[in-house]
Design brief:
The protein contains 7 helices and 5 strands; from the N terminus they run βαβαβααβαβαα. By secondary structure, it is of the alpha/beta class. It has one domain: HUPs (Rossmann fold). A 5-stranded parallel sheet has the order 3-2-1-4-5, sandwiched between helices. The termini are far apart.
Length: about 220
């Protein structure tokens, strides 16, 4: 019997590929968090479709409304425009949701401890990404220590970041190799019908598929 892993699945490309990695050695439990993001409904649909693909029985969909109330991000504040260019490596972009991964991981650890999970998988990358500080390897190393200090003595949960040092193109290639349902994923920051192809998330995704020599299977506004 495989040990259990909680996978943080936003519905995006990276989290889907991270789940595909986890599926090789673990029984899967999928966690999705709604936090008032612009494409909340579309991301939730992608989450359930990916979960159906992997026949995931353990699913938790929950909310962190405080992140929208706090604001400070173009993803949660409709008054802040979503940038339509690639992120600069010299600054943290306005799409950064302050300390978001800490909230998500806390929920994953709580649920994982109840389920008896051994791992938490998150699709963070510190190579081709938007420059979010809570996607760095050092952050997850520190968080693993927090888990050790803050859970039962018999709890053995570790965060796994299988994509942390991969480029977006390498993530795409890995997803294809593992048979991940990339056609079910959604990455656009501002549209839910077809991807805009202009926001930083779309641009990074399109660049990844282009450099991997593959066609992105999701629909875009301009074809």
């Amino acid at each position: 019997m495989k040990p259990l892993a909680v996978c943080l699945v936003s519905g995006g490309l990276d989290s889907c590929v991270a789940a595909a990695v986890a599926a090789q050695d673990y029984e899967l439990a999928f966690l999705h968090v709604n936090y008032g993001q612009r494409t909340e409904a579309r991301e939730l649909r992608a989450f359930h479709e990916i979960a159906d693909f992997y026949k995931v029985k353990h699913r938790l969909v929950t909310e962190v409304p405080a992140l929208k109330q706090i604001g400070g991000s173009a993803l949660t504040d409709p008054n802040i425009a979503v940038p339509e260019d690639e992120p600069s490596p010299d600054r943290i972009p306005i799409t950064y949701v302050p300390f978001r991964n800490a909230h998500f991981l806390a929920i994953a650890v709580s649920w994982g401890e109840v389920l008896g999970a051994k791992r938490i998988f998150i699709g963070a990358s510190q190579v081709d990404f938007s420059g979010y500080p809570d996607c760095r390897a050092s952050f997850f190393t520190a968080y693993n220590q927090v888990i050790k200090e803050g859970t039962r003595p018999e709890t053995e949960i570790l965060i796994e970041t299988p994509l942390i040092n991969l480029t977006k193109a390498e993530i795409v290639k890995l997803g294809q190799k593992l048979g991940a349902p990339l056609h079910l994923t959604w990455s656009c920051y501002q549209r839910e019908d077809v991807a805009c192809g202009r926001c930083e998330s779309c641009l990074l995704r399109l660049k990844g598929f282009r450099e991997a020599g593959l066609k992105d299977p999701i629909p875009y506004e301009n074809g």
